[in-house]
Specification:
The protein has one domain. The chain is built from two helices and no strands. It starts with a helix and ends in a 6-residue tail after the last helix. The protein is mainly alpha-helical and about 60 residues long.
Length: about 60
C-alpha cells in the first residue's frame, strides 16, 4: 500500500495525477493501517480471553 501511495505521489509531482488521487491513495493506506491495528488488537484480546478461560491469572 505504501508503494501505491508513493507511486501516486510521484505521478502528481509529474503532473500525471490529481491531488484527489493522492488523497484517495492516502485514505486507502490509512484504512489498511487501521485494519492492521484492529486485527492486532483483536488477536491480543483473543489470547487474553484464552488465557483467562484456561484458568490463568486466578489465585
Amino acid at each position: 500500500m505504501k508503494a501505491t501511495y508513493r507511486g501516486t505521489h510521484e505521478l502528481m509531482d509529474n503532473g500525471k495525477a490529481s491531488y484527489l488521487e493522492v488523497l484517495t491513495a492516502q485514505e486507502s493506506l490509512l484504512n489498511a493501517q487501521l485494519n492492521e491495528a484492529t486485527n492486532m488488537y483483536n488477536g491480543a484480546q483473543a489470547v487474553i480471553a484464552l488465557y483467562i478461560a484456561l484458568g490463568g491469572g486466578t489465585k
